[in-house]
Amino acid sequence: MNQANNVIRGSAFLAAMMLAAAVWAADRVPLTTPVSGVVKEVYVQVGQKVKKGDRLLALDDTRLRARVMEAEAGLMRFRQEAEEAGRELKRAQELYDRGVSSTTEFDAAKLRHARAVANAQEAEARRIIAQKNLDDSVLKAPFDGVVRVREAEPGMYVPAQLDPPTLIILGKIR
Fold first, then answer.
1. pLDDT tens column, 82-104
2. Contact 160, 57 (CB under 8 A)
3. Which of 88, 95, 120, 173, by CA, is between 20 and 30 Å from 164?
4. Vertex 21, ends 16 and 24: CA angle to 5°?
5. CA-based angle 163:166:172, to the nearest 5?
6. Do residues 85 and 99 lie in contact, with contact meaning Cβ atoms separated by under 8 Å?
């Protein structure tokens, strides 16, 4: 009978430990950045309360800002090319309608315009991705919480990989 009580107590203890671990895991959220970079600044300390949206850390964003500028320049160039191709298409349409140009010339103008518009859309996508990467270089609190663990320090390299390192563990405030 004593041995059965020990087994029951042991099982209850194991169940309590598993529940405590589940509550701890649900209460603590490991955070990292989805982009690679060198930590430039850490804005929080262990035990500090933060509000949703507060900056926790920032990576050096020099290259990311340059990529946004590069993408914006490409977008501007391709938009201008699309506008010019649109004007050429309009002229080709007018000439075709008057019987001055051939179907081949009109079709070529349509193709140039379609390619220019597609290039502008691709450039817009590159600009959006570059801006998103820049935005992701700042780690912000996803909810109100308390900093439980701080693993990041200025100068630390953070690789973007399938299993990036945990930089900060944020606990939920109850």
1. 999 999 999 999 999 999 999 99
2. no
3. 173
4. 125
5. 125
6. no
Of 32, 28, 29, 30, whose CA–CA distance to 156 is shortest? 32
Q: How many CB atoms sit inside 10 A of residue 137's CB?
A: 22
> Strands, E, within 90-167: which ranges?
138-140, 145-150, 157-158
Say which residues have a Cβ less than 8 Å from residue 137's Cβ, sequence separation at least 6.
33, 35, 37, 58, 59, 60, 61, 64
Residue 113 and residue 88 in contact, taking contact as beta carbons nearer than 8 Å: yes
Name the band, by pLDDT with cuts 50, 70 and 90, for residue 46: very high
What are the chain's domains? 28-60+138-174 (2.40.50.100), 62-136 (1.10.287)
Grouping H, G, I as helix, E, B as strand and the rest as coil, residue 117 is helix
What is the total residue count of the chain?
Answer: 174
- The burial of 133, by beta-carbon neighbours within 10 Å (0-12 exposed, 13-18 middle, 19 or more buried), is given as buried
Residue type, 166: T
